[in-house]
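Input sequence (188 aa), recorded before submission:
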Amino acid sequence: MDIFHETPEPFLLKELEKIGPKQKGIVMQSVKDVVQSLVDDGMCHCEKIGTSNYFWAFPSESAIKRQNRLKGLEKDIEQMEAKQRELTDAIDKAQLGREQTAERTSLNEELAEVEAEWRAQQTELQTFKECDPVLMKQKRDESVVARNATNRWTDNVFIMQGWVCEKFNMDQADFAKYFGIPADLDSV
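Predicted structure, token format:
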């Protein structure tokens, strides 16, 4: 950065490779990497003009960047302080009417008792959930669907058995034995 700040003119990479080792003691092979890292960090500019890449950075530019960042941070601080004031005002407004009085204490105790009773009733309700008429109807409906599906697949097995036995001239007992079909398989 010192090389860029000493003269207000752009440099070619070849010029920087000559100046860097002589004036600043930078190893010639690492000049390109150092310049590229400066470009990547936004501390130096690179522009391709024709077939050449020109590099430059001005001292005033970094000061302007710092000033802009400072202004941005100050603006953020002002916004955060305004939000903090708003939230503090909202808390103060919410606290109005919530002073601890005897009536409020008794109402809070009553609320706690009602909530405890409600939790106990919910627990009791869970023990009787198995007898819930809606749940029972749902289980009956599901069992009908399951029974119909079972019968459909049983029929499919019998149809397949009949087709295989007819097509390949096979006995039904042999088919059941080869495919592991129990002898008592029947529709539900």
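Checked by second reader. The longest strand covers residues 45-49.
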